[in-house]
Prior knowledge:
This protein has two domains: 174 residues, Medium-chain alcohol dehydrogenases, catalytic domain (Quinone Oxidoreductase, Chain A, domain 1); 125 residues, NAD(P)-binding Rossmann-like Domain (Rossmann fold, 3-Layer(aba) Sandwich). The radius of gyration is 20 Å and the shape is globular. Helix 2 packs across helix 8. The protein is of the alpha/beta class. The structure holds NADPH dihydro-nicotinamide-adenine-dinucleotide phosphate (NDP). The site of NADPH dihydro-nicotinamide-adenine-dinucleotide phosphate has 30 residues, from helix 1, helix 2, helix 3 and helix 9.
Amino acid sequence: xxxxxxxxxxxxxxxxxxxxxxxxxxxxxxxxxxxxxxxxxxxxxxxxxxxxxxxxxxxxxxxxxxxxxxxxxxxxxxxxxxxxxxxxxxxxxxxxxxxxxxxxxxxxxxxxxxxxxxxxxxxxxxxxxxxxxxxxxxxxxxxxxxxxxxxxxxxxxxxxxxxxxxxxxxxxxxxxxxxxxxxxxxxxxxxxxxxxxxxxxxxxxxxxxxxxxxxxxxxxxxxxxxxxxxxxxxxxxxxxxxxxxxxxxxxxxxxxxxxxxxxxxxxxxxxxxxxxxxxxxxxxxxxxxxxxxxxxxxxxxxxxxxxxxxxxxxxxxxxxxx
Length: 322
Ligand code: NDP
């Protein structure tokens, strides 16, 4: 099978197309013939070595496809089942062996591509607004990178909960997309100072929550736009990691709360994983979560997919199609 392997961490060129044996399942695993693999920023972190994996490894954390073989102890799925998963390295490939208890069934009405586009980013949006900071009607959220993969879904879920959404984006085209997703206000943070704009838009009161995936370039200013006891939800670092700081800063800025959540801790049990995945699929089937799969690439084009994602050229979801 073809797979995209990293033998030495580094830039997009570190993603090499290689020929490997189709994996054999361990007793608790199923082998998935992959129809589509999601491209996510976390794949960049692994490729760069910011997140560690034993080398060589196949990049990618999210895929959907069909079960082609099951291990001796597997009872929850059978050959031919349509399934998706996230959180298991090795998705940039034609086949992957995955622990059966990490697989979720894809309901009819949801395509493999949609499942691969929705699981990681959709479940992330879901836990961020429902669990990390349970967003309520009438509250105001500042969402950075509002036209991005997670960002667009987060805007939709926050809007549906009745929150007022202020989104930041880098271009006019992205501004239109974020508005279509439900953002009430948009700030072009590459042209305007988002701190001053957010204060103006909230009449100086500040927002209840900041959902920040940009990190280094936005984090400190984000603390200045929160109301007292508001929450900074730092969930990524697309512009780089946030520098260390003294926690007294949170007191000085108004007894703020800082969360640094990760999806893996919100889908730890089988129950939570399936409930959250089902909730996301339900929203898709009800038309409440509109996916945007604009960027599809062949497996061998993985380096270009990473260049586009890192180069801020993309909106919505990127998929690799083996
Ligand atoms: P996006 O589609 O959001 O792409 C990244 C976006 O970040 C860009 O399009 C760009 O939007 C913005 N950005 C701002 N500054 C930079 C910069 N210097 N370089 C690159 N991009 C920049 O990616 P994903 O949806 O895949 O991921 C978004 C973030 O969410 C990532 O940081 C990722 O790690 C994190 N994440 C965290 C999870 C968690 O559970 N903690 C789970 C899933 C994702 P613009 O041009 O509008 O500024």
